[in-house]
Amino acid sequence: MTTLKETLRTDLTAAIKSSDKLRSATLRMALSAITNEEVAGKVARQLSDAEVMAVLIREQKKRREAAEAFAAAGRAEQAQQERAEGEVLAGYLPQQLSDEELADLVTQAVAESGASGPREMGLVMKVLTPKIAGRADGSRVAAAVKAALS
Questions:
Q1: Given 71, 90, 109, which residue is the final one in a domain?
Q2: Greatest pairwise CA separation for the chain in angstroms
Q3: Distance CA 91, CA 137 (A)
Q4: Domain span at 122
Q5: pTM passes above 0.90
Q6: CATH number for position 47
Q7: Cα separations (Å) of 77 from 59, 70, 147?
Q8: Burial of 76: CB neighbours in 10 Å, binned 0-12, 13-18, 19+
Q9: Which has fewest Cβ within 10 Å: 10, 25, 39, 133?
Q10: Where are the beta strands (DSSP E) in the chain?
């Protein structure tokens, strides 16, 4: 069974051979971030697929935020570059939840945790987080939970 990191390396090789500059640069950046995560701390370690996925999610979020900042500053070309890199990374992430799917999961988590008000948001998030596992942005999830508990 191939790991996500091996898939990224294989795709990087293919992108380099096909002279796809955007894809190869983005995959190099992702593999670099993964390697940095592996050697961070006192002991180097091999990341699991879930940890690699978390790094890719973090990198995609950086690209989205940078694109928004560039767009707000009137730098459309750089914003487009960041969006394109984010789209390359999105191809390696699980399909994002729709608003309806997220609302259903939030409703189930509220019922499961027995939460009754906004003060018990932490209980709901504790139940909900493993079910979502990278398929929705944290701020989007938090907003949906707040709305359900209000």
A1: 90
A2: 56
A3: 16
A4: 99-149
A5: no
A6: 1.10.1510.10
A7: 19, 8, 36
A8: exposed
A9: 39
A10: none
Cα angle 137, 140, 143 (rounded to 5 degrees) comes to: 150
Which phi and psi (to 5°) does residue 65 adopt?
A: -65, -40
Do residue 66 and residue 32 come from a single domain? yes
Quote the CA–CA distance of 123 and 128 in Å, as a whole number. 9
pLDDT band at 1 (very low <50, low <70, confident <90, very high): very low
| Token duo for residue 57 | 């999610």
- Count of domains observed in the chain: 2
Task: Give the tens place of pLDDT for each residue, 74-131.
Answer: 999 999 999 999 999 999 988 888 888 888 888 888 888 887 878 888 888 888 888 8
CA dist 132 and 34 (Å) reads 22
What's the Cα-to-Cα distance from 108 to each of 85, 102, 104, 128, 141, rounded to whole Å?
34, 10, 6, 9, 13
Q: What is the pLDDT of residues 19-54, one digit of tens each?
A: 999 999 999 999 999 999 999 888 889 988 888 988
Please give the helix or strand (H or E) that residue 103 lies within, else none: helix 99-113
